[in-house]
Amino acid sequence: MATLWTRGIQVCRALPRLCTAPSVQRRTSVRLMSTEKDNLLVDVDSKTGVATMQMNRPPVNSLNLEFLTSISIALEKLENEKCRGLILTSDVPKIFCAGLDILEMYQPDVERLQVFWRSLQDVWLRLYGSKMATIAAINGHSPAGGCLLATCCDYRIMAPNYTIGLNETQLGIVAPFWFRDTMCGVIGHRETEHALTLGIMYSTEEALNIKLVDKVVPQDKVIPAAQEKMKQYLKIPEVARQLSKDLMRRETVEKLRLRREDDVAAFKNFAVRESVQKSLGMYLEMLKKKSQQKK
Ligand SMILES: CCCCC/C=C\CCCC/C=C/C(=O)SCCNC(=O)CCNC(=O)[C@H](O)C(C)(C)COP(=O)(O)OP(=O)(O)OC[C@H]1O[C@@H](n2cnc3c(N)ncnc32)[C@H](O)[C@@H]1OP(=O)(O)O
């Protein structure tokens, strides 16, 4: 296993300049260190060119601005390093990713809110539009933005007894068009309409039935299964595989590229609505109560 150490990613609170370019030193294996502790662990196998990216932002890998920025920078570096494959997974037990950090959207600083949304767009553009073969090794719950990350990948392998889905409407918010398009590309229009309007969180087994995930394996086999599937992708001539993926995804990618700022404005205007803030406040309260009951 070869390691590429990326150090010194500094995420500045000052806006709009978010971060300095990380310095990269080639060593025997790759570790991309994030700003907030080691919340993103990236190892690259130098023989296969396959990177494994583990999200590690306890308690639930929620995607705040800094975390999204780290993911975006890491994806850019892997692409620049000409990595051939990416396995996206979690280092947090029982959670793949809890989606967007709701605290970014609740009682927000409006300028930060917009930078936050752009950083999510960046991650989506890089992951959905990646030249790498991408596999989500879903080893925990995966609501909303977590489901988005998984559906951006080319293939999904999930462990039993978790949940996945775009549950936004249950929070009183709306998944934007590029979340919808991503899900449509995986499960089709009718099932996406059903899923989005009801905010359905599918069990692993249900997700397999509607092909939201491709394969279910026991928890300890999720990453090995992803590594095995990756071999199949890597056997395909690289350019043919990449161009085929591009053919399938380019229009969807371009749609957001062309509408980025309109999308930021729509998000901001929607998020600051009183009714939306009220819904988010109630949802956070519900999460807090549930969490306290466990303690
Ligand atoms: C028409 C124009 C449209 C334009 C766009 C408009 C709107 C924008 C849409 C934006 C799209 C949004 C996408 C999202 O991703 S929203 C986030 C949705 N996520 C969720 O609903 C997940 C909520 N969390 C859970 O269901 C559970 O936490 C869990 C992931 C299943 C894990 O359960 P468990 O292990 O039992 O952990 P706890 O519930 O006890 O949680 C531990 C602590 O973490 C806090 N938490 C959980 N999730 C989040 C989150 N997403 N953000 C921030 N914080 C989170 C939870 O409150 C606990 O905190 P505490 O211990 O301090 O109380």
Automatic annotation (TrEMBL):
The protein's annotated pathway: Lipid metabolism; fatty acid beta-oxidation
GO cellular component: mitochondrial matrix
Pfam families in the cross-refs: ECH_1
Gene3D superfamilies documented for this protein: 2-enoyl-CoA Hydratase, Chain A, domain 1, 6.10.250.170
GO molecular function: delta(3)-delta(2)-enoyl-CoA isomerase activity
Tagged with keyword Isomerase: yes
PROSITE patterns: ENOYL_COA_HYDRATASE
UniProt subcellular location: Mitochondrion matrix
One BP annotation, GO: fatty acid beta-oxidation
Reaction(s) catalysed by this chain's protein: (3Z)-decenoyl-CoA = (2E)-decenoyl-CoA; (3Z)-octenoyl-CoA = (2E)-octenoyl-CoA; (3Z)-dodecenoyl-CoA = (2E)-dodecenoyl-CoA; (2E)-tetradecenoyl-CoA = (3Z)-tetradecenoyl-CoA
Family indicated by similarity: Belongs to the enoyl-CoA hydratase/isomerase family.
Role this protein plays: Key enzyme of fatty acid beta-oxidation. Able to isomerize both 3-cis (3Z) and 3-trans (3E) double bonds into the 2-trans (2E) form in a range of enoyl-CoA species, with a preference for (3Z)-enoyl-CoAs over (3E)-enoyl-CoAs. The catalytic efficiency of this enzyme is not affected by the fatty acyl chain length.
Stated name of the protein: Enoyl-CoA delta isomerase 1, mitochondrial
Lineage, uppermost ranks: Eukaryota, Metazoa, Spiralia, Lophotrochozoa, Mollusca
